[in-house]
Amino acid sequence: MAGIFVEPWFHPLATSCHITSVTNPIQAGIELPFAGKAQILGYCAVVELLANYVKKAPGYKAGDLLGASYYTDENNPLWISYQEKELNNGR
């Protein structure tokens, strides 16, 4: 449903993005200007750097990039239930 917002007939700037083949992702990736590719790679790099920065914090626990373990007790039944749901979801 959200893909409708980037279709050329709906989005006002989609016709000026210089991509002619919006239905073919490979062709669209080839037609994407260097600045667009640099923005995508730059965003990914920032996310990776932030994740590595968070991992260096004292008291960091593996898999807890948001720091939720600082705000709750490890033996809290709600927290244990949440962790179990996340682990089961990751199968």
Biggest β-sheet strands, sense, barrel: none
In what range is the share of β-strand residues?
Answer: under 5%
Helix tally equals 3
- Count all strands and give the number: 0
Q: What is the element string, with H for helices and E for strands?
A: HHH
The average pLDDT is 78
Fraction of helical residues:
40-55%
CA(first)-CA(last) distance: 26 Å
Characterize the overall form.
Answer: elongated
Which spans of ≥5 residues are poorly predicted at pLDDT below 50?
A: none
What class, by secondary structure content? Answer: mainly alpha
Rg value:
20 Å
What secondary-structure arrangement, pairings included, does this model have?
Elements: H1 25-31, H2 34-55, H3 77-89
If you had to describe this structure to a student in words, what would you say it looks like?
The chain has 91 residues and is mainly α. It is built from 3 helices and no strands. It has helices at 25-31, 34-55, 77-89. The longest helix is centred in the middle third of the chain and has 22 residues, at 34-55. The two termini are 26 Å apart.
